[in-house]
Fold this protein.
Amino acid sequence: GGELTFITPRDGHRRELALRFLIIMAVAMITILGLSYLFIRKTLDPLRTLEAGVHEIGGGKLDHRIPQAGPNELRDLAQAFNSMAERLSRLLSSKEQLLLDVSHELRSPITRLKVQLEFIDDPEVRESLRGDILEMERMVTNLLESARLRHAAAALNLTAVNLGALIR
């Protein structure tokens, strides 16, 4: 229900001044928008780096660290991320070491049980216990082997190989 009125000068000189003013305003607006875009991109670069770091850590590369750059808040965030990645790496390493140690320590009692099993006179009881001991031994062996494989896989140096040349 409102009205919009445009007023334009009738003489040519004022019309030319108005056109120049509009062109200057458009150039200034484009310049300001362009500079704002570049400033925002530069400011958000640390967030892109952080996002890439999150993907690296999520992909299992726990030794990845983020450079601490940018404004104070982003630097603090990168430092907290690096600290979290370090703690996560230590935690997983400790868990694997504990699993390896426990599995290794369980081997001795299982071996002693196997020796003592031979002194049981009732063959039915002996076979029942032997089955249980073998199952425990398989579980411990599986734990040890999976831990060794994970440890060995971390040390692998993967390279591209030409299969044709390898087969020849």
